[in-house]
Amino acid sequence: MSETPLAPCGRRACEVTDNHASGGYRVFSLHDPEGPEPEPGQFYMLATEIHWEQRGGRPFLPRAFSVADVHPADDGIELDFLIEAVGPGTERLCALDPGERVWVNGPLGNGFSEPRQLSDGAVGAILVGGGIGIAPLALLRRRFAASNVPTRVLLGFRDEAHSGGLDDLFACCEVALASDDGHVGHHGHVTDLLSAMLAGDDASSAAVYACGPPPMLDAVAALCTSHDVPSELAMESPMACGFGACYGCAVPRGDGSYMRLCVDGPVVRAGGETRGPPLRKPALGRPDGSLPGSAHKFSAGGPTGLSSQQGRAIEFCGIELEHPIINASGTFDAIAARRVYGDELLRDFPFSAFVSKTITLEPRAGNEPQRIWETPAGMINSIGLPNKGLDGFIAEDLPQLGELPVPLIVSVMATGREDFKRMVAALDGRGDVAALELNVSCPNVHSGLIVGEQPEETAALLEALRPLTQKPLIVKLTPNVADPAAVAVAAEEGGADAVSLINTLKASAVDLGSGKPGIGVGQGGLSGPAVRPIAVGQVRAVAGAVSIPIVGMGGVCSGEDALEMIAVGATLVAVGTESFRDPRAGNRIATELLERSRSPELTST
Ligand code: RRO
Fold first, then answer.
1. pTM of the predicted structure, to 2 decimals
2. How far apart are CA 276 and CA 267, in angstroms?
3. From the CB of 382, is ligand 1 less than 6 Å away?
């Protein structure tokens, strides 16, 4: 297991060097001077630098693509991607001109294994690709050729218009073809070719590697299981971030739980198990050698360059923070991000405090896919609070979160007061927890009662919890009520130290292709710049009603947006969805905020 990070920390702008038609698809190439060479099966999150939110605020999220080929360049490497224009994101990428720049985050995820890693007896490889799924197999074939692994390639296409990439990526080798319409090769499915091959004598010495549409992968997995041949499948799932933050790319494991395909895949062993051990074990200790749990006070002049001498250090509920930018709960998984980006993440951590994803008393698997849906200038999520439960969190996550170089705020949620009390009492004694956020506003857990929708319930909850802890209690408010200020006042009267708002707005979408809801469970919560004016309005209303500090959030993408939140009364500003697009959005926004607040034109409401 490699101790090196998968990818440079954050996103970087890479120049397009070529973009040409290839059958019904396009092959475009990027010059990457900084990134490490990707493994076959790994992927990148891509978005164009300009004109991304071009048509009605879409595309908004970056798109995930497997890398199809890699070439050495004078300076760094050149990456090839195979792409078909099927929606606003792929259409924009297909239209790229050489010289334009693309935001690149990667390489990400687990790549394919060698045959011998899958089975002692496997010495050769059979690659099975369908449609655009041939892309990662092109790089895999090249890797196996270089390491003298005997490899056979079976590729299938729907029709001629969907047979792109062949000449560009597989021109050099013998390939058996199949097509649904019979225009080339075997008239039928590529899995017919695999079936015939596995019935042959030498199948027991091979491992199968497949990428393509889900029905094809199911058929490959079934064939391999029946012939007792090991296989790896490169899968796809809608994802917003690619580095474990959004929890959108959930794929069932078969035991009732889900894996995040971005960090547990995209290559998985047939049968649903992930490829192997976690990507990387985080190193113990802090980069500066200080002890975990000692980081709740900050000296001036931190890594972002924001310093208390410059008047930017913030006191929040008795906790000293280096700057006003924190993360919104559930939008950044620091443990997963550290596995992807390594300790570089800690050296210049994006936030001045870290808020955990909300935990519950008992473990939860989360909601069934589809969990995310892109909308104009935003997205809907219905993640459904997947978490390890209080005990799992304390045993497994808390020690790792205690190594972060910033104070930790743990977000908790329960459907009943007694469960809330048990969680608060259990976390009260933890020195590594600086404060607690009470999530009384999740739109995606259907308990019958959302405490934060009723001022009396909110006040009663706070009155029950206040005697249990000296730690600051921050109440996360819902925007899905007529009068959020009334709930904020109730929280303050009940003994809350601060309020945070807004959680996401209840929302829905329809997949016009299938006629089904865009979100598996029918509805979810809307976030992103689309909700920012609502968030600003609600922060303003709450600030006029309470005297406790406010954490403002909702669609903050820039220093100016953060300044707007502060102008209407926020003490801290949380960044949420923007971290999916830019993993270092927190650092960027903190720096922009400092620069903007020094500017002479600064005005306030
Ligand atoms: O996990 C979620 O689905 C979720 C939560 Br807990 C929340 O508070 N807000 C949200 O939009 N999603």
1. 0.92
2. 10
3. yes
